[in-house]
Design brief:
Blueprint: H1 2-49, H2 51-62, E1 63-69, E2 75-76, E3 82-94, H3 102-113, H4 117-124, E4 131-137, H5 139-148, E5 153-162, H6 170-173, H7 185-189, H8 191-194, E6 198-205, E7 211-214, E8 229-231, H9 235-251, E9 256-263, E10 268-275, H10 294-297, H11 307-317, E11 325-327, E12 332-335, E13 338-341, E14 348-350, H12 351-357, H13 360-370, H14 372-381, H15 408-414, H16 424-435, E15 439-440, E16 446-448, E17 459-460, H17 464-479, E18 496-505, E19 511-523, E20 530-537, H18 545-548, H19 550-563, H20 624-627, H21 639-648, E21 654-657, E22 661-666, E23 683-687
Parallel strand pairs: 2-8, 21-23
Antiparallel strand pairs: 1-6, 2-3, 3-4, 3-5, 6-7, 8-16, 9-10, 9-20, 11-14, 12-13, 15-17, 18-19, 19-20, 22-23
Amino acid sequence: MKGGTTKTTAERDRKRVRDWSRAKLTFVGVVFALVLVGLWLRAGYLQIVQGPDLARLALRQHMASESDRGERGQILDRNGRLLAKTVEFSAVSVRPKDIVDPDAAAAQLGGILRLKPVWIKKKLVSSKPYVYISRRVDDKASAQIRQAAIPGVTLEVEHGRSYPNRHLAGQVLGFVGMDDQGLEGLELSFDNHLAGRRAKYAVQRDASGRKLYFDAQGQELQDLRGRDLTLTIDAQIQFFAEEELAKAVTTNHGKAGTCLVIHVPTGDILAWANYPFFNPNAARSVSPKEGRNRSALDVVEPGSTMKPLVVAAALQEGVVKPDTSFFCENGKFKISNRIIKDTHSYGDLTVNKIVRWSSNIGAAKIGLQLGPKKLHAYFEKLGFGSPTGLPLSGEGKGLLRPKNAWSPLDTATASFGQGVAVTPIQLAQAFLTLANDGVRKPLRLILDPPRETSAQPPLKVFDAEVARTVQRMMREVVHEEKGTGRIAMIAGVDMGGKTGTAQKASPTGGYGDKYLASFVAFVPAEGPQYLVLVMVDEPEPSHYGGVVSAPAVREVTQKTLSYLGRMPETVQLAKGHEQLHAVPASTAVAMAPAAQAPPQKGDPTPGKLIDLGQAEIVPVVTGRAADSPDVPNFSGMPLRRAVEILIAKGIVPRLEGQGLVVSKQSPAPGSPWPGSEKKQDFVLWLSRPS
């Protein structure tokens, strides 16, 4: 019994053990089944319910859209010389969370960037994830920062605008902002043309945000660069204009000035200078007054420069003839209880002498005989009272009151340039009409892209013979005895002009003791090819246009004609003004070979002209050869260098043959330099380099 009982107990214990094993297996199986079902449910939920949202989030994390903008187009002068371009700069940025020692980093950056460390430290401890410390950093500072290797400080490459000629045509070019957007001048007017185009690309990134892949169908196949802009301005003539304008303003203690040079047959503006100068590279640190484009914005009374235009209108209407005589009241003329005065006491003067000697009383009587309605109508035809239409933002339209508001006194004063206000570019446009044989044509500042031409034909304001008659009267201003513009005369060059001395209005009413001195010139006088205008604001002590502005016109004209090869071979530059300067190498960057103005039908040929061909215009360097008491040996010398030496001596050589190297010369080497009393030609025979 006892044995049987023991056996039964053992069997019972074994059964109890087997039951627990089964339970455990069952439990584990159930747990795995539940986990598996849960995973299936979770996977189904993620894929079916949350799938679209999660896919969208993943795409945002691993595929990003990045934009890129192309380089801004260049601005070039008419000969392809660079006036504005885009270059690479460095920008200093920081990630504040990566800065280990803000004080030390601020001190280092402050010393390199010349910024206050206190201001930099505020940036370094900012809560923002990313901040800029400085942009447009120069190469030297960039190299120092790179060498310092400050943790958290990085250098980024960005593009910015550079003006290699500094202030050359600065007010016309304007400038751009930090984001490469045009803010003033042509940079603003042609922003859509110059600006690089934007494009977006799909970029693949890893978990750290690093770029992995660029779509081959994206950036590589698109040209995002902005388009170039070519101006009518010639950088060399622009330099002449700015140089002489600055001299005229500073020598005469003036406040400001403007100078324009225009090619008459095409209406191309070859130079557009304003003083004080404006350097677009430093646009953020200069006064807005310096960036003001005075030629297009300043509204001034033209003074006596109005007289040739009034005379042309009177001749056109047949109310006067060139020999019509007017009594000039011996210097004082009373009208409407006001006294009009002349600088000299004149009696009877013919129309041409009224222009030559600049009689206010004579001009007033011509205007009164023409009448307010007709005079006002001619002013409108000449473009007064409306912008010229040049592509410059904010251009002034001048001041021309309605004709029904004109009294006899208004008509008289308007005839000698008071009571009517114009911009310098409007006055240049009016004289361009007179120079173009009476046909008004648009001024042109842009060569490429060409502007759409108007369907309307050019406006005929004066008959050709009327315009030529007034041109001859303007010649007398320069070439005849007692002409008010004789200072502008260049020996051997046919030239016409008109002086202007406009009394400026006083802020308290009436006219004060400040003046605007101006001079406008035609070269040659009849059938002009070039027009030069100079205005100097508030000169002292002398304020006469024939004294203040005429010398600047003479120098600009002389240098321009020499540069273009249009000075007669027998003409020597005036003593004391013999050196023909060009854009300094430090100023002009990447100068292309200088080209002459495009030959125009009907160009005058007074004597034989120098043709410099493709010779590069560079600064004149007066070395041993130029200072030698005897004529040096030019044989084998480049034409450019030979012409430099001769121009420095006041000699314009005659060129024979073709090529850019001198093969022989006359006078022979060792001969005395030909003096002004000698009529001996200086001839250079040319050949091509072997």
